[in-house]
Amino acid sequence: MTFSILILYFVYLIFIAKTTSQEKKQLVVCFILIIAAAIFWSASDQTYTSITLFTEDFTNRSVLGFMIPTAWFQAINPIFIIIFSPILAFIWVKLGRKNQDLSYISKFGLALFLGSISFIILYFASHQLVQANGMAISSLWIIAFYLFLTIGELCFSPIGLSCMTVLAPQRMQGQIMGLWFISSALGGMIAGLVGGEVSAENINELPSMFKQCAVILIVSAAILFILNKPFSKLIHSSPKKVDSSYE
C-alpha cells in the first residue's frame, strides 16, 4: 500500500502536475534514490527483526560465564556510529578539498554495496550454523555484520535530505522531503515481513534468505553506479546552486 502511494504520487508530480522537462528529470532521480533508500532501510531495519531473532536463537552470547542480553547487541550500531562518523566526515572533507569527493549517487551506491557485504557475512554465518546442525555460532559474526551495515548507513543517511533539497523543484521541496521519510517506513515494513521468516524451525532456509538480501543490495548498488554519470549531470544542471562537493 505504501509503495503504491509512493508510485502514484510521483506519477502525479511527473505527468500531471505542471512541471518543466528539467523538473521531471529531477523528480525521476528523486524517485529512484528514494527507492534505493527504502531498499537499504529494509536491510538495516532487520536489526530489529530477523537479526535480533538470529542473535537470540543462534549465537553464542556467553562471555566468561555471563550471558549477554540480546538487547545489548542493539547498542553496537550507535557505538559504531559514534566511532566512524568523525572518520568518514574527515574523509569526505579531505576528498572535497581535493575535488575528489564522491557524488550523492556514488555514496548511495556505496551504502548499498556495504549493506550487501553485511548480508554476505550473515550468509556465511548461517551456512556455518546449518553445517553445525544448529549449534550456536560466534557472536563476532553479528558484530562484523553491524560494522559494514553501519558504515553503509553513514555513507548516505546524513546526506539524504540535502540531496532531496538539491534535486526537488523549489515549490515541491516539502512534498519530496515527506516522500523521503516514506522510504524509511517502507523499509521498516519490508524488514518486518522478512523477520517473520526467521525461526528455529526453518534454520535451513536462513542462508538462502540472507543470500537473497545480499543479491538485491548488490544489484541495486550496481544500478546506481551505472547511473552515476547521468544522475550527477542532472544534479549539476539543477537551477539551484550546488556545492561542488555534492556533485
Polypeptide structure, described:
The chain is mainly alpha-helical and 247 residues long. The protein has one domain: Up-down Bundle (Growth Hormone, Chain: A), CATH 1.20.1250.20. The protein is built from nine helices and four strands. It has a two-stranded parallel sheet with strand order 1-4. InterPro entries: Dipep/tripep_permease (IPR005279), MFS_trans_sf (IPR036259), MFS_Transporters (IPR050171), POT_fam (IPR000109).
Q: Descriptors for this entry?
A:
globular, two-stranded antiparallel ribbon, mainly alpha, 9 helices, two-stranded parallel sheet, 247 residues, Growth Hormone, Chain: A, 4 strands
CATH domain topology: Growth Hormone, Chain: A
Total separate domains:
1
Spatial ordering of strands, largest sheet: 1-4
Q: Using the 3D structure, state the CATH architecture.
A: Up-down Bundle
Largest sheet: 2 strands, parallel
CATH H-level name... which superfamily? MFS general substrate transporter like domains
Question: How far apart are the first and last residues' alpha carbons, in Å?
Answer: 33 Å
Tell me, what's the shape? Answer: globular
- Rg over CA atoms: 20 Å
Low-confidence stretches: 241-247
Mean pLDDT score: 84
**What percent of residues adopt helix (DSSP H or I)?**
over 70%
CATH class annotation = Mainly Alpha
Instruction: Give the helices and strands as they follow along the chain.
Output: HHHEEEHHEHHHH
Give the percentage of residues in beta strands: under 5%
Helical element count? 9
Q: List how many beta strands DSSP finds.
A: 4
Structural class: mainly alpha
Pfam families: PTR2
Keywords: Cell membrane, Membrane, Peptide transport, Protein transport, Transmembrane, Transmembrane helix, Transport
GO molecular function: peptide transmembrane transporter activity
InterPro entries: Dipep/tripep_permease, MFS_trans_sf, MFS_Transporters, POT_fam
